[in-house]
Amino acid sequence: MTEVLRASNVETMYGRVMAIRGISLTVKEGSVVTVMGSNGAGKTTILKTISGALDPFKGQVEFEGRDITALDPDVIARVGIAHSPEGREVFSLLSVKDNLMMGAYCRKDRDEVARDLEKVLGWFPVLRTFLEKQAIYLSGGQQQMLALGRAFMQRPRVMLLDEPSLGLSPLLISEIFQIIKRINVEEGVTMLLVEQNASVALPAADFGYVLETGRIVMEGERDVLMKSADIREFYLGIKAESARGDRRWKARKTWR
Ligand SMILES: Nc1ncnc2c1ncn2[C@@H]1O[C@H](COP(=O)(O)OP(=O)(O)OP(=O)(O)O)[C@@H](O)[C@H]1O
């Protein structure tokens, strides 16, 4: 698999606060890569730095071998990267249909756009019932579907997904992750998915990174990470039987 996205030694600051510190990651074409980390670890900052919403203080972002570091967000969108933001960030006063069409604003292939709209409404039938209604009337889960659908309408090569599971019920999370996997497999869209919820993100991914206070502290293929005792205990919540007894978890972490 060829590499489609690469971040090398990226550091991004908010004023004097360094939110991510020397982040390097690669995403292979056709894969789903997840960055897992707790609240405030820097997940959103990584995605915003890739999509051009934030300029890094240091480091480089490459898309298909082209340096896209600190280009304007609309240029990065046009090269083929779509950002589905956290908190859904839909245009609440626009209709559901207009929100979806905003995703396709720089496309000229009208017939394909119409077909893609049908595809999105097929994946998320509930959106069809609200098509002409303002997005403000959607529930959190429906807004998340709309944000994903809007990102797909851009017909990107890579989708950046910011916590699609946030605030959703287990049933909705499972529905949304099934669609994410379909977009990946059936539409060939590469995914970079950041999540606090490792138990949904890791099984859906091919490769994972663990982020702690702005640094990557662990990385590996999904199956390797799923077997890691630390990942199982601290991210997947599966408690291992320990002959050493209940020592404090920080003392037993092995990824630092
Ligand atoms: N606009 C901002 N100004 C100052 N500091 C910020 C700003 N946005 C984020 N930060 C800080 O940068 C760090 C990383 O934040 P970021 O939002 O990337 O984390 P996250 O892993 O996405 O967290 P969450 O899961 O809560 O969204 C945090 O310490 C946060 O407080």
Short structural description:
39% of the residues lie in helices and 26% in strands.
Map the helices and strands:
Elements: E1 3-14, E2 17-28, E3 32-37, H1 43-51, E4 58-63, E5 66-67, H2 73-79, E6 81-84, H3 96-103, H4 110-123, H5 125-129, H6 140-153, E7 158-162, H7 170-187, E8 190-195, H8 198-204, E9 207-212, E10 215-221, H9 222-227, H10 229-235, H11 249-252
Parallel strand pairs: 3-8, 3-9, 6-7, 7-8
Antiparallel strand pairs: 1-2, 1-4, 4-5, 9-10
The structure holds adenosine-5'-triphosphate.
Adenosine-5'-triphosphate is lined by residues 14, 17, 19, 37, 39-45, 86, 196.
Task: Describe what you observe in this structure.
This protein is α/β, with parallel strands linked by helices. It has one domain: P-loop containing nucleotide triphosphate hydrolases (Rossmann fold), CATH 3.40.50. It is 39% helix and 26% strand. The protein contains eleven helices and ten strands. The strands form two sheets. The protein has a six-stranded mixed sheet, sandwiched between helices. The chain has a four-stranded antiparallel sheet with strand order 2-1-4-5, covered by helices on one side. Helix 3 runs parallel beside helix 6 and helix 6 runs parallel beside helix 7. The chain is globular. The two termini are 30 Å apart. The mean pLDDT is 90. It holds the Pfam family ABC_tran. One of its GO terms (biological process) is L-amino acid transport. Keywords: Amino-acid transport, ATP-binding, Nucleotide-binding, Transport. InterPro entries: AAA+_ATPase (IPR003593), ABC_transporter-like_ATP-bd (IPR003439), ABC_transporter-like_CS (IPR017871), BCAA_Transport_ATP-bd_LivF (IPR052156), P-loop_NTPase (IPR027417). Belongs to the ABC transporter superfamily.
